[in-house]
Amino acid sequence: MVLSSAFQIKTSGFNDVHDITAKVESILSKIKIINGIVNVFVPGSTAGITTIEYEHGVIEDLKRAIERLAPQNIHYDHDARWGDGNGFAHVRAALLGPSLSIPFTNGDLQLGTWQQIVLIDFDNRPRTREVCVQIVGE
Amino acid sequence: MVLSSAFQIKTSGFNDVHDITAKVESILSKIKIINGIVNVFVPGSTAGITTIEYEHGVIEDLKRAIERLAPQNIHYDHDARWGDGNGFAHVRAALLGPSLSIPFTNGDLQLGTWQQIVLIDFDNRPRTREVCVQIVGE
Amino acid sequence: MVLSSAFQIKTSGFNDVHDITAKVESILSKIKIINGIVNVFVPGSTAGITTIEYEHGVIEDLKRAIERLAPQNIHYDHDARWGDGNGFAHVRAALLGPSLSIPFTNGDLQLGTWQQIVLIDFDNRPRTREVCVQIVGE
Predict the structure, then answer these.
(1) For residue C134, what is the nearest residue in chain A, using CA coordinates?
(2) How many domains is chain C built from?
């Protein structure tokens, strides 16, 4: 069995990190599939999905690591060609990836106690993001 | 229902980036499964799969970020032990990952408008890569 | 059909890399599902899953790249707030990701010859990790 769902989230860009665990759990709680895989996917080329302990310190630490990985203040060919100013966001998104698959059993995501699913918006402006939640199981 | 498919792609290595979206869509268009998850996987330890806006500027920006992440011109124990000269490729592949899962609904991949699936070959020579496309759904 | 399994592994932390391919293959060999997707997932926010050629040189090269990505000896807000001393581990885990999906066909994982599934424990102390193996297929 397959269930396709989605939700929207307003972001401010520039490494904006959002805990989306409750949104995913809410979808799982309303369906009859209790064992399987949840795929969380963000359409678009300037955002990513991963897990972290959603705690202010870790979030700031992660933002700094992403800034080191693809700094805002260096040259990007994308910006030179298109003038978008978000070349750093494209590179960050490609490195982190737009997709995360998580097992669930008896209706429960198999996350650790201090592990949350997060959307990170790398773009250089506010966005309304669609997040796809695809569930395959029985 | 499960469908297993694959295709081959010739690469030149050294961060060679290929848009494989049309290949994946072509497989989806020929089967009866219309809702589910597509897993795109590259066997081998010197290539990776992600998504980007497939545009010359972004591609060059991503290549430079990968070069910063695991530079070609530093020492690699792998090369010292085996003389392969592709230690940088192994590290890059491990960090990016060989696998991407994407939801599809009514036969359509839920990608963004400017988001393409790409294979990146990190190896230090031309390769013919097999890309596995595993589809689970209904 | 869905099969949920798991196994435990003792780690020493600080980028401790474990080849878990045989554990995953052992689970696959005992079930009736022969085609589908295996999702390997580590609960917790200080460990990750990827694939590498499990060879001493590559392992050391990867550890050095991870150290460059999120060095141990810089400031972490997480440590300043909580005194855990493992801020670097949280950042590393968020960047690598806790999840990997792999296709299998006729009971065989579609890995390359020199490609192994690895758990990397980034934490700053020994841990006993649970690894979830969720199999969806037919």
Answers:
(1) A103
(2) 1
